[in-house]
Structure formats: C-alpha cells, structure tokens
C-alpha cells in the first residue's frame, strides 16, 4: 500500500468536538494523527525507519509537554519571558508486562540567576504547578510511576 495524501484519509465522525483527535492509516504500520486545529503527527511502529513517533514516545511526549506547559507561566514570572527550558521524559516499556512501569521526567532549566533560597522556592512552586496542572500526569498517576527532577532537584512524584 502506498502512503495516501493526508488531507484525504481522516474520515469524519459525527462525534467530533473539542478535544477530539484522530489517527488514520497512511501505510503499513504507519498512521497520521490529527487534531481539530489541523496539526499532524506521524505515528509508526518503533521498528520502522523514518521520521515518526511510536505510541509510547507520544505518551512520554504528552507527559513532557504537559510538564512544560504546567510550569511555563510560573517560571517566566521569575526568569523572564525569554528563558530556555527543555523537558525530557525517559523510560522504556517493560517487555514482560508490555507496559510502562516507570517514566522519569527531567526539567532542564538554568536557575543560576537565582540565589539558593529563591531557587528552592521556584522548584517547589514548579513542582506544585506540575501536580496541580498536568492533566496527563494526573491521568497516569497510579498506573505508571513518574519521577520528576527540576534543575537537578528530585521533587515528589505527581
């Protein structure tokens, strides 16, 4: 099967509403994800070559993105709007149980402009923002152990 043009593969559902997303098959073990705003992502098996995400990578990407969005405003208030931050999500699925048992989140942000007290306060504020605002993390809570580290400081799991 050859890859189809992405604008023609997503069948329309009567249930489409806010928050709806779809995946459509574009080839063997290759899918395209689409949201209501028109953004797309290529999805495929981890064994395939090419630029795409596996479903497990998308889960980790959703966790990392949720952490980033959860801390963005509180960090910007203290570091300025142009601060740099990268959030990683590390982990592999357990082959025996065929599930993710643990994912490590790592927030890389330079807090050297803050004194030790302000740095500690910001890490605490960021940890609370993640716990309160990260819908994805709250959704997997209890099913997957998620450990979070902010600027080298381990924070309580959310």
How can the largest sheet be summarized? 4 strands, mixed
Strand content: 25-35%
**Tally the helices: what do you get?**
3
Derived structural class: alpha+beta
Report strand order across the widest sheet: 4-5-6-7
Number of strands: 7
List low-pLDDT spans: none
Order of helices and strands: EEEHEEHHEE
Gap from first CA to last CA:
43 Å
Average pLDDT works out at 92
Rg, please? 18 Å
| Shape summary | globular
Specify the helix fraction band. Answer: 25-40%
Describe the structure.
The strands form two sheets. The protein has a four-stranded mixed beta sheet with strand order 4-5-6-7, covered by helices on one side. It has helices at 55-79, 116-133, 135-140, and strands spanning 21-27, 30-35, 40-44, 85-90, 102-109, 145-150, 153-155. Helix 1 packs across helix 2 (116-133). The chain has 158 residues and is an alpha+beta fold.
TL;DR of this structure?
With 158 residues, the chain is an alpha+beta fold.
